[in-house]
Amino acid sequence: MLYTYICPQELPQFSSKQLLSSEHHDEYPLSSYITPPPPPIISYPALFRIGALDLERNRTVRTVFIMIAADNSYLDNAALPSGESPELVLVQATPEERIAAIKLNSPAWKGPLDLDAYIARENHLAQQALTKDGLTSWLLVVRGQPEGERTILSSCETYKKKAILAQNGRVEHVSALSIGSVFCRPEFRGKGYAKRMMQELVKKIDMWQTEPKATNRMPFSLLYSDIGKKFYAQFGWMPYPSTHFSLPPLPKDEYDRAIVRGNLPKARTLVAEDVHRFMCNIDVVQKELDILRVASQKSASAKVAVVPDFDHFKWHWAREEYYAKILFKDRAPPLIKGAGDEQSKVYCSWNRNFGETPEENTLYILRWVYDEPTSSEETEKTAKAMAAIIRRAQLEAHAWNMSKVQFWNPTPVLERAVAILDPTAQVVHREQDSVACLRWSGAEQGKNVEWLWNEKYAWC
Fold this sequence. Notes:
This protein is of the alpha+beta class. The protein has three domains: 2-68, no CATH class; 79-239, Aminopeptidase; 243-432, 3-Layer(aba) Sandwich (Aminopeptidase), CATH 3.40.630. It is built from ten helices and 20 strands. Strands 5, 6, 7, 8, 9, 10, 13, 19 and 20 form a nine-stranded mixed sheet that branches. It has a seven-stranded mixed sheet with strand order 12-14-15-16-17-11-18.
């Protein structure tokens, strides 16, 4: 879109860069310089491409084409390229462009935080052990635009994670790619940018698979769709079981009565060190590998899992502790990270997720660890221990103003545990939000893939 930049003699003759720098906004508003006044969609800084310079009666007239830097918008959607344009490319964001992308997606995901706190949260999470060396921010941009001045048409992030692949009794340590923060700004939607971005990302993932110098295989990638099951399926991310139980919080008096009434053992609480000791120790890791190995011997399909290591739990806790520090300034940080029953060797880890409204606050059980029962007697004992642990989670949810307790993809023994607590509780099948999706790239293992431990811990 063309605009005329008129600079009267009595006003300073700023360069286009000076004109839009923040120090001049209040004294000399943009509307004083540009005619017709630009629509309110424009914000600072913008990229001015000077077309002509003429002198006419004590004023400078400049015709300019206004594009955007990484955190602004086109003034006219008609100027936007098509999502099918050969000029669009997927690039890695510079640190500054990453922040610009975070600013753009903040209305969707910042929740109760203000913008500065949201950016600080994202930077804090990026420095955690889980993500520090494996996080990449991606932008869909127009080819040829210089860094720092590229228009963000769409954006996403990828996280490289430790994973396991098992087939025919053989267990292999591999990597997986987790895709998150897929975002297209509202004013740019309908152009096909998100689709093009995912197409370009698939090309990169497949190219990495065939690189001769690749030292760590990435036979699969995963994401959690908040827009249903169809969009990502067209690129190969197929929906997997996405179910959960949702139970209400319990105040202390109700919790005490429920434990007595149900004749349940009293679960012990776990701090971070306990979670590491009971859920991430060498014996547990070996059992997990054995489970995958045995499962892979029973069928020809490949078995995959994201490694449920301590770094995953720490990432989720870093997130909840950041929110707690801001939202509960006068309260000690949340130290209780899970619960367990040592006699039955049943444990879980959880985190508190603070939403935009209190109704969205959720205590998520991230992961369950237990020995699979081999008899009806063991099943009942394990289920009662799980029921006691769930009750403790409900108590913790009440203490932190959580509206519900959730855990994903419950096994039959967990379903039995919930039935002990509430025979009317129903498994929820998610169709639109947090739909677990997996894309398989390991062609040599065939197309049938089973995703084990598809629990909340793997989400980020």
